[in-house]
Automatic annotation (TrEMBL):
One of its GO terms (molecular function) is carboxylic ester hydrolase activity. This is Putative Acylamino-acid-releasing enzyme. The lineage of its organism: Bacteria, Bacillati, Actinomycetota, Actinomycetes, Kitasatosporales. InterPro entries: AB_hydrolase_1 (IPR000073), AB_hydrolase_fold (IPR029058), FrsA_esterase (IPR050261). PANTHER family: DIENELACTONE HYDROLASE DOMAIN-CONTAINING PROTEIN-RELATED, POLYKETIDE TRANSFERASE AF380.
Length: 254
């Protein structure tokens, strides 16, 4: 099922629902199954192959909602690179609830990983379990070459042109004002909602001090999986890892 959702600030968000395991167990209703709401990384979109692969993996464990953040794919608006994207995720979670699912797990990758953390902090009780994969802990990080390139895309007019036509991602030209709550500031506000932080020790964007900062902020209210040899975000997440995440969400939210 495909639909355009409207965020609280009036942006149209392209979203797809896959009933997943519900289809194979007709004795149960959507309320009996958890739903995974997947928040993709920067320059991703609902129809990108790596997003569809994640959706297929989670569909073994429950229903799945995928969507394109503002400025990405067929969604309206322009990307604010993790700020107002919280409203996009809130609209997707609301749609999952409207479809009958009583239990919702949000799973975000990279930029989407920061969004699920901030969403859980700013919209308490909207989600029942949170998984953040390959997320930054703090804003304005430029310590790696990939992040320096990303900042050029976001902050320079010529970079935004490259992003629009080369990466099919439309970026807002305005700076953050005010600067949004950072992921590490958001984490302590998530409890008692179960939280899982996943990061690769070979991540080329954000080194391991980022997940360790997030885990320290969560204290005993969160779990950290530091994955040996894993790179960054959806493309680096193996089917085996996605399966473990699926089982974790079912165990906490299901």
């Amino acid at each position: 099922m495909r639909a355009f959702l409207c965020t609280s600030d009036g942006v149209a968000i392209d979203a797809v629902y896959d009933p997943g395991a519900v289809v194979y167990d007709t004795s149960r209703t959507p309320a009996d199954h958890p739903v995974f709401v997947v928040a993709h990384g920067f320059t991703g979109a609902v129809d990108r192959p790596h997003v569809r692969r994640v959706a297929r993996a989670f569909a073994r464990y429950g229903a799945v909602v995928t969507f394109s953040f503002r400025g990405h794919g067929a969604s309206g608006g322009r990307s604010t690179v993790g700020d107002r994207e919280v409203l996009d995720l809130a609209a997707a979670v609301g749609w999952a609830r409207e479809l009958g699912h009583a239990r919702v797990g949000t799973v975000g990758f990279s930029m989407g990983g920061s969004v699920v953390l901030r969403h859980a902090a700013l919209h308490p009780r909207q989600t029942d379990a949170v998984v953040s994969v390959s997320a930054p802990a703090r804003w304005y990080y430029r310590g790696t070459a990939p992040m320096r390139r990303l900042h050029w895309l976001v902050t320079r007019p010529e970079g935004r042109v490259v992003s629009r036509y080369g990466l099919r991602t439309r970026i807002h030209h305005r700076d953050w004002d005010p600067v949004p709550l950072s992921p590490v500031e958001a984490v302590p506000r998530i409890a008692p909602t179960p939280l899982l932080i996943v990061h690769g020790d070979a991540d080329g964007y954000f080194p391991v001090d980022h997940p360790r900062m997030l885990a320290a902020a969560a204290a005993d209210q969160g779990e950290l999986w530091l994955e040996p040899g894993m790179g960054h975000a959806e493309n680096a997440a193996s089917d085996e890892l996605l399966g473990r995440i699926g089982e974790w969400v079912v165990g906490r939210a299901g």
